[in-house]
Each structure stands twice: as C-alpha cells, then as structure tokens.
Automatic annotation (TrEMBL):
Residues 220-241, 326-336 have a biased composition (Polar residues). Keywords: Leucine-rich repeat, Phosphoprotein, Repeat, Ubl conjugation pathway. The gene is Lrrc41. Gene3D superfamilies: Ribonuclease Inhibitor. It comes from the Eukaryota. GO terms for cellular component: cytoplasm; nucleus. It comes from Chloropsis cyanopogon. This is Leucine-rich repeat-containing protein 41.
Amino acid sequence: GLSTQPIWRKLWDDVMKTRPPNSESITCWRKKFLETFFSNVLHGVLDVSSDWRLQDRHFSPLLHSSPHVSQLTLCNMLQGAVELTAEHNHKVLENLAGSLRILKFQHLLSCDQSIRRSLVLLLHRLIHHGSVSQVSMCSWPVPDTILLVLILTMSAGFWRSGNALACHGSPCGLCREEDKAQSQEPAQEGAERGCTAEQEGSAAENQKGSPKEADAHMTSVLSGPRSSPLRNPASEETSSEVPCGHTSIQGSSSPHSSSEQLSCHPIPRKTRRWLKPAVGRKRRCLRRSRGHCADPEDLYDFVFTVAREDNSGLLDKTRTTEGESSENWTSSSPGSPCTGHAGCKKRGGPAGILPLKAAHRFRSVSTLELFSIPLTGETCRTLSNLLSSWVSLENLVLSYNGLNANISCILAGLRALSRHPECHFRMLRVSDVFSHMPCLELVRCILSALPQLHTLSVSFDLKNQLEGSRPETNPSCSEAEVPESCLEVLEIRFPREPLHTAFLLPVLKASKSLQQLSLDSATLPCPQELGLLLEALKECTPNLKKLSFHDVNLAEHQKEVLLLLQDPGLQEITFSFCRLFESSSAEFLSEIINTVKRNSSLKSLKLPGNRLGNHRLVALADIFSEDSSSSLCQLDVSSNCIKPDGLLEFTKKLEGYIQQRGGQLPFTHLRLFQNWLDQDAETAQEALRRLKAVCSVVNDAWDSSQAFADYISVM
C-alpha cells in the first residue's frame, strides 16, 4: 500500500543526473524513469558503467526496461533501429512489440541501404506484428524521400511481397508460421472463394510437399538475386486461364495478436493457393510477375511505385510533374481480372516492380503525425494514395508541411477513405505558415469531403504572399451547402483574416453536434459581427459546451462578453489575450463578477493575457462569496502581471470565504503561469503554500526580467 514514487524520483536523480522537463506534470515516476532509461541506453546517452548498480553481468538494461516502454523516439541515422534489430536484442524487440504504442522519428538523416533494411525489420515487427498505434515524424527540413515514403507505406500496413524481410537469411518467423497455418486449410475453402473445384483440387495436390521443401522454396523466392526469374513453367501454363476478381486493397483492422495477421510472403506459383483474408477484407489474387523480379533490397523502386498507383480512381486525370512526362492516372474498374503475364495491373515504374495493389496488407497504425516535414507534390500523391484505403486511421496531424494547394490532393485520398464502410477516421489537424485559401472556405471543403469527422483543426500563420490581391472570401461560400456532419470540435486559427459570420453559418448549421468551438487570431470586420456570431451559435449549436477566443480584440465588445458569461449552456469560456480591460471601466469588472456569480453552469473561466494585475485578481475572489451560486471550478489567470503581494491578498480573501461557507468551496484549480512571482520570492512562497491548501495550483519558475528583456529585444 506504500507508494514507490519517491524511490523512482531518487533513482532519476542518482542515475540520470538531470532535471526532468515538465516534472510538475509527471504522474508516474516509475514509467518516466524506465522509458527514459531505455532510450538513453539505446542511444548511448547513458553510460551503464557509470553506476555500480548497473554493472551486474546478469542485468541487461534494455531487456529489463523494455516491457515498460510505451513510447520510443528514433533520431538521426536511426542507430537505435540498427541496435534493436541486432540478433542479441531479439528478446528486447519482442518485448517492445507488446508494450510500445507510440513510435516517433525526429531529426532524421539520410541513411544507407543496410540501415533502411534494419528499419524495415523494426517497423514490420512493431507495427505489422506489434502494438504500435501511433507514428509521429517531426523536424525533418530536407526529408529523404525514400525513407519518408518507406515509413509512411509500412505505417499504412503495406509491405511489398518481393521485399524479403530476411532476418539473418530466413523470412519473418511470424509470417512463416501463418503461411504454414494457411497451407493446412481444407481444400473446400477454395470453393467458397470463387475458385472451381478442379482448380482447388489441383492446388491441394500441389500442397502435399513437405513443409521443409515449401519453406526452402519460399526462402529461395524471397531472397533470390535480381537475375533469377521468379517463374514456374508448370504453373505459367495455366496462370492465364484463372482470372480472379481484382479490387484495390482495402485497409485492415488493428488486431493485437500475431495469429490475426495476414501473411507477408508471396505464395509460390507452384501451389496456386489462395490467401485466407482477415474478416472484412476483400479477397484478391496475388500473382508473381513472369519477368525478372526486382532486387528484394531495392526499396527505391517500391516506394515510388506507391505514388504511381491509383486507388479507387483517386487521381483520375492526367498530371504532368517536373522531370516527368505526362501520365494517365485512369483507374481500372473494380473487379477486372488480373492479367496473366504480369500479375495485377501496374501504373508506371520499372519493369518487374510489384505495384501497391500487389503488396500485402498488414496491421496499420491509427494515428499519423507529420510535424515540420516539407511534402512535395509527389510525396503528397503517395500519401493520398495510402490514405484512400487506410481504414484503421483515426487521427491525422499535418503541421507545417508546406502543403499549399497540395491540401486538395490529401483531401482526395481522405474523401475516398470516408466512403469505405470500415472507415474509422475521426480527427484532422492541419496547420501551416501560409494559407492558399480563406480558412472558412477550407473548413467548408474539408467538412464537405469528410462529414464523419469529430474533430477538425485548421491553423495558419499568414496569408499566401502571392495572393495578396485575391478577394478576402469567396462570395459563393455562404451559399454553398455543407452536408450534415458529426463534428464535435472545431478549431480555427485565422491568418489575421476577418471573421464573417455569414461564411461560418453553413458550417454551424451542418454541425448540430458541435460541443467545442475555438476561434484564434480573427479580426472582427464590424462592431455588430460578434453579436451576429452569438446569435448564430445560439440558433445552430444547442450542444455547445466550450467556447474559446484567442487573440481576438474584444475591448469594444463588453456587452457580448457579458452575454456569453451568462449563457446557461456553456461550461467553459476562454478569453485569451483578448484585451478585455484595455478600455473598460471599473464597472465592467463588477458586472463580470456578478454575472459569473449568478451562472451555476459555468465550470471553467480562462482569462490569460488580459492584464488583470493585482487589484482585478483580488476582485475576482468575490466570485466565491457567501451569496454566490457559482459552480466555477477552474480559473486561469496566467500572463496577467500578477505580483506576489496581490496573490497573497487573493489567497487571504479566499480563505475568508471558505470560513463563511463552512469549508465548502467549488473552486479546485488555479493556473498561474508566467506571472511576476519572482519579484518577491518569500511572499510568493507563502501565498502559494496557503493557496495549495485551498486548491490545486499550477505555476512555473518564470523569469519575468528575462521575459521583459526578450520583449524589448524584438520590438
């Protein structure tokens, strides 16, 4: 019944010898220590010989800490991937396959073929046969296209069958076991898949060879040299006589046990047997090319084949790219038979390279995040193609990728995905420096393409420099119909664009389930605009619970601010850096306090960056007076020029109200980030000590003098 947190905290100090970042938010020191310990040992940051407790020859740092690692970051030249796929760390990798949930790549550099091969092994084990549900990549200013597309493709569950995952000369053990299990299927199951009884009987007869012979043949197929033709003359005579229904490969679910995975190795043509698909998966025929197979280690051709593949008629038009001739991207009709001479149909690429449709589909991740990674048009087409059948994908974050007009290509893939009956996509976040179209127009386009979204966040810093002469908004935007959506959370950061309620209205009308709305950095074109917005919210969003304004000048909108504070439906209101008291009188603060005192539904009030100062903070304590019916639990007064003496007076006033109310106070959380509490450390410590007896306080060690110097330096 005793907590071990202090022991793990002390271990951190003794072993890591550093101050952990954001230590206030760490809830489990055991998990924090073991994850960081694993990462530091893996990347050579921590010298095991530096601590006598780690020098036991029976102790393996990576092996003992790996079962506790749920998040792992790989950096630079992917040295961690090479180490984890080494033979002596086989058990470590097995542990990670069961424990790891989040895999991050940061500051990656170009790497050679052997390192990429190690990465393929790692991704195959951790994603395809593991439990990783989120892949994040960040800070890659000049991405290696081959490496980037490889990570994206394997995260989506695709792996090319000719791309032998050879662990020391043998195929993946889990895949080999599944192949053996599938080879023992009753022959009559083939009839259920649409094959004739005669063909199935022939396939069953061919499968009577010994397992060792089958494995030997499979190994030779997977690891054969470039010059060896992968064909069986006996089977080629009949290959063109057996057409099969062909559709684009659909996405997979996310099973956690290896027994539920699909086979990852090509079936020798000699057997002519069918794969047993996972539940809900479309059947398909996998055929080997009659020509020479590409080098199994040649990832370059494969990753670019992904971009050339069209999926569900995704890129149904002719495109011309730099350095390429015009190509026709017309989709083949679903259900068309496989061609006998070259397997499934291809779209460009070197001869003998298996296209995406011929790749196997495995377990895929549910969350993909790309931060600060420039995406070219070719890479966007690749990602779009992958997205179109990525049915396990639930969350997509694209941040500072320089998309511009390429966002339409991404939306085309997501639109195709949304039509899939097994689609689980629910959250999209897009942020960038420049906006190539007005924010509200982009929001309308996204919701029209993805009505099943639950969360949508669109954020831009600046308008596109090349489009300064364009109209502020599209006149047809307010007239366009937006289909009814499932949207619950909408966040818009405007690049200093005017907020026209008329253009937001179609979105609000289509979002009856909206519960949270955040508007950031918008300008109000006229004094009546905020009033029109409040009327639209009241009429169209009856379920709205949280409303946030950030960096929106509300100094001249005191009436609307008070109307929001008395809204009985809202539970959380944020006015962040909104200049609330810039030109207000003392009566305005009193009206705010009295309004909140009468509102029993408001639970959270956030007022960061509004220059409250000491006197206004002390006045806010009256919200909790004896005659108040307020249920306010959380108050955020960060960045409000609050000094230690003002905080102490606020605390004393709260203590008095607690006594008046018999020790009962709904107030539980106070946020105090970036205030001037360092100006009198002794008084600040006393105020915080007494305040923590009243509520939970979250603050930081902020140097106000340095912050002021930084402010002056950029003026």
